[in-house]
Design goal:
The structure holds three protein chains of three kinds. Chain B is of the alpha/beta class. Helix content of chain B is about 40%, strand content about 25%. In chain B, strands 6-7-8-3-9-10 form a six-stranded mixed beta sheet, sandwiched between helices. In chain B, strands 2-1-4-5 form a four-stranded antiparallel beta sheet, covered by helices on one side. In chain B, strand 1 and strand 2 form a beta hairpin. The chains are: A mainly alpha, B alpha/beta, C mainly alpha. Bound molecules: adenosine-5'-triphosphate and magnesium ion.
């Protein structure tokens, strides 16, 4: 039972990550490889605020969101006015820069040693201390984020992002400030990625940089590709599937040393196959063309 | 009175002059037809005005304001709308969303406001929907409102792109070959509508290959060849010019 | 000290440049952002490791087989992964994602077979040569010589042969090539073969120099792609120039800070370029120009 609750909690965390990236991939049509960086920035800012300044979980989470949004401009301002493939490379670069900082700025982040002993979230004097209550707690936050992202996706803002995805030039000729809209979408996606970072830190009560690597960014992206983009259901289907998949593999009984690589190979093959045979993913609205 | 003016504008692509020291003005509330053989530089002029490409030299001004080098969105917000020769719809959006995306001043285009004051956005959205429906009825696509734009026939796509342009409610309309691929009955009502827009005070520039259409709607005709204005005047004057006939109409 | 660092930077620049030229071959002609180039790089150095270290084949034989097989792998990747997508009219976006998927598969395939730990390819201490206060290892010298030879080769192929002219024409206008009656498939095959072969050369040299692990491909493709962009997309000399700039700046950064920040330097340089000179050192500025249909 605890095992299942653990997986469901991870799904809550990942759903927010994937839905926020969906705003870029499925709406704007931007490939970003920096989502794990924002996830990590959220985790580290909230953790440091809680441990160094003694803030509560929620204020720390909100400030982490603000901080992450601000940091997102350092990458979106220089790269979003350029061609799509430059942006992919720049986002990858940002991911690597952030990882390098988390890993090497030992005075602040303790680098590879990680930060242990992160206190559990406390609300109105009640500590979220069981796995069941953390599942509920993360579920509430995931539901709120999903609701907000749904509102944003279905708002005129979401519509104009899709218009940009379809034809930037036509959208510009209709008076839409493409670059500004993209930068805003990027900031929103980054902000929403910070929340699961805080949730993850509060859940494991330990963070180190290896949770926020390039491969993690690729993983988050592959969830969208496989589940499908441009709506809410695709990313959710993808998340559930991809979080359960390794557990299934474990069930089959692959040796641990091989399992990790095997899992990655399966992700890679799935991406290739989906792009080839089902570009809208399992349940997406947006067909990559 | 010229509302939109090009002065000595030059644009070369890889050394080939597409527009060559061209000066041209468009009168307010009039219909000007741009004609000329393929590759004369007509579409390039639209691209230059819209800011999609930058002139190598020369200036473009709108209501005496210099708009040379402004970004496309900025030009559009000044009140210059554009119909593309190759349609350029938002293909994987519904017909309705294609129109809705085009309206100006949408509160909900600000993500923050769309979450903070959703009721306001919903109210606005209702009136936009109404206007979208009117536009779709006008072009006869009301029953297709929820289809994806990519599933329309070419003629229907053309009509939708016209409706989308109208949704922008610009003062100057740059229309690139509106009748190509549209059926004759629709053409008639389209022309009627273009005339009405001009009467309402819109400035219209239309690129058109069909001379009957040109004669029917144009107040002014500008004949272009090799990036230059060869002849400019009333429709009958220009179309009667033997040189024009030889270069273009006589084929 | 400074001189030595400069020399080291230039040598890494040589290695980056070889990868960058290979990447540029493919990127400039097909516009495909060939992420899997990094995977090919990793694959080739492990192939070499198998031939040279495990099977103890003579060095030259191992190198020739590695380069030939890698070139073939490049062609195969194009045939299996990209061509079907191109035929369908897929966007570069899809090609890039597929390439990323393939990169993941290749890297993990290698890691599964050979493990994640670093492999040493040339045991013992390498002979060194000193030029005044400058000390270079044999492999470093070989890298520099290989770069010069390969660079001249690339430029000769591009500027002097019919194939090179076709490649440059395809870079400028893919449609033109089919109009001219040249088979774009054939050009693609050549480009993928040459590009991958270049990756193999760099991979072997750097493997012999500092050993290898499955993730070397990531650093290689990143340095290569960044070099191409800061040098100027579409210009082969630019790729080499970008690579040297990168190598030298990284080397100086190590002197000022520490090797741990090296990757960060790469991307700070990229971001500075994107901000202030997006067309790259040798590139010409293009606004997103509409192609009238
Ligand atoms: N983006 C571009 N890049 C390179 N050359 C271009 C570009 N746009 C237009 N040209 C060239 O400029 C010249 C003028 O083209 P333009 O599209 O303006 O002609 P047009 O008068 O609209 O012709 P048509 O009646 O066929 O639409 C042509 O020779 C064309 O090939
Ligand atoms: Mg034209």
């Amino acid at each position: 039972m605890n095992y299942l609750l653990h997986i469901l909690t991870m799904i809550n965390i990942y759903v927010i990550l994937v839905l926020s990236l969906n705003l870029l991939v499925g709406y704007v049509g931007l490939l970003s490889l920096s989502h794990a960086a924002f996830y990590g920035i959220g985790a580290y800012i909230s953790t440091l605020l809680i441990m160094k300044l003694g803030l509560g979980f929620l204020p720390a989470l909100l400030l982490a969101v603000v901080g992450t949004v601000l940091l997102s401009y350092t990458i979106s301002l220089p790269s979003l006015r350029l061609r799509g493939d430059y942006f992919v490379l720049a986002s990858l670069g940002f991911q690597i820069i952030v990882f390098t900082i988390l890993y090497n700025w030992i005075d602040l982040t303790r680098g590879p040693y990680g930060i242990p002993g992160i206190p559990r979230p406390i609300f109105f004097g009640i500590e979220i201390n069981s796995i069941g209550s953390y599942f509920l707690f993360s579920g509430v936050i995931a539901a709120i984020c999903t609701g907000l992202l749904y509102l944003i996706g279905n708002s005129p803002f979401g519509r104009v992002l899709k218009a940009i995805r379809e034809d930037e030039i036509a959208a510009a000729a209709l008076g839409k400030n493409i670059v500004r809209l993209k930068i805003n979408a990027f900031a929103i996606a980054a902000g929403f990625a910070a929340a699961p970072g805080a949730l993850f830190a509060g859940y494991l009560r330990y963070i180190d940089p290896t949770s926020f690597t390039v491969m993690e960014s690729v993983f988050i992206l592959s969830i969208i590709i496989i589940g499908g983009a441009g709506n809410i259901s695709g990313p959710i289907v993808g998340t559930v599937l991809m979080i359960f998949l390794p557990e299934v593999l474990r069930f089959i009984g692959l040796p641990d040393a091989v399992a990790a690589n095997m899992r990655q190979i399966i992700y890679g093959l799935l991406i290739i196959l989906i792009m080839r045979y089902r570009p809208q993913g399992l349940s997406g609205e947006y067909r990559f063309e | 009175m010229s509302i939109l003016e090009l002065e000595n504008v030059t644009k070369a692509f890889d050394g080939v002059l597409a527009v060559d020291k061209l000066s041209l003005g468009f009168d307010e509330a009039k219909i000007t037809a741009l004609i000329g053989p393929n590759g004369a530089g007509k579409t390039t002029i639209f691209n230059l005005i819209c800011g999609l490409i930058r002139p190598d030299s020369g200036a473009i001004s709108y209501r005496t304001k210099n708009i040379t080098g402004l970004a496309p969105w900025h030009v559009a917000q000044q009140g210059i709308g554009r119909l593309f020769q190759d349609v350029r719809l938002f293909e994987r959006l519904t017909v309705n969303d294609n129109i809705l995306a085009a309206f100006k001043n949408q509160t909900g285009e600000n993500a923050f406001l769309s979450v903070v004051v959703p009721w306001k956005v919903v109210r606005e959205e209702r009136s936009f929907l109404e206007r979208a429906l009117q536009l779709l009825e006008f072009v006869g696509l009301a029953d297709k409102a929820n289809d994806l734009a990519e599933n329309l026939s070419y003629g229907q796509q053309k009509l939708l792109s016209i409706a989308r342009l109208l949704a922008l409610d610009a003062d100057v309309l740059l229309i690139d070959e509106p009748t190509a691929g549209v059926n004759p009955t629709m053409v008639a009502s389209l022309l009627e509508f273009i005339r009405r827009l001009a009467k309402e005070g819109k400035t219209i520039v239309v690129i058109e290959h069909n001379m009957n259409v040109v004669v029917e709607i144009a107040d002014w005709v500008c004949f272009m060849n090799q990036g230059q204005v060869e002849s400019f005047g009333l429709p009958n004057e220009v179309l009667g010019d033997p040189e024009v006939r030889a270069a273009y109409i006589g084929l | 000290m400074l001189l030595q660092l400069l020399a080291n930077g230039i040598i890494s620049g040589c290695s980056y440049a070889i990868v960058a030229l290979g990447f540029a071959f493919i990127y400039n002609t097909t516009r495909t952002f060939h992420f899997a180039h990094g995977g090919v790089y990793t694959l080739s150095v492990y192939l070499f490791y198998t031939l040279y270290n495990l099977w103890a084949l003579p060095l030259i034989v191992a190198i020739v087989i590695t380069v030939a097989v890698t070139a073939f792998v490049g062609i195969l990747i194009d045939k299996i992964i990209y061509i079907p997508l191109v035929k369908r009219g897929s966007s570069l976006f899809i090609q890039m994602l597929s390439s990323l998927g393939l990169y993941i598969v290749l890297i993990n395939f290698v890691a599964m077979i050979y493990g994640n730990e670093t492999k040493v390819l040339s045991p013992g201490i390498q002979p060194t040569y000193s030029f005044g206060s400058l000390i270079l290892t044999q492999i470093q010298l070989a890298t520099a010589i290989a770069f010069v030879v390969l660079f001249i080769g690339v430029i000769v192929v591009l500027k002097k042969t019919r194939l090179g002219k076709t490649i440059r024409a395809m870079r400028d206008d893919p449609q033109l090539v089919s109009v001219l009656g040249i088979n774009p498939r054939r050009v693609r095959r050549v480009v993928f073969a040459l590009g991958s072969a270049l990756a193999a050369c760099a991979a072997v040299l750097s493997g012999l120099d500092i050993g290898t692990d499955p993730n070397v491909g990531m650093a290689a493709i990143l340095n290569g792609a960044v070099a191409v962009i800061i040098g100027g997309v579409g210009i082969f000399e630019g790729a080499a120039l970008g690579a040297f700039l990168l190598g030298i700046l990284q080397s100086l950064a190590i002197w000022q800070a520490s090797a741990r920040w090296q990757e960060m330097i790469t991307f700070l340089i990229l971001i500075l370029f994107l901000l202030f000179r997006p067309q790259g050192i040798l590139g010409v500025r293009h606004r997103i120009e509409e192609v009238s249909v």
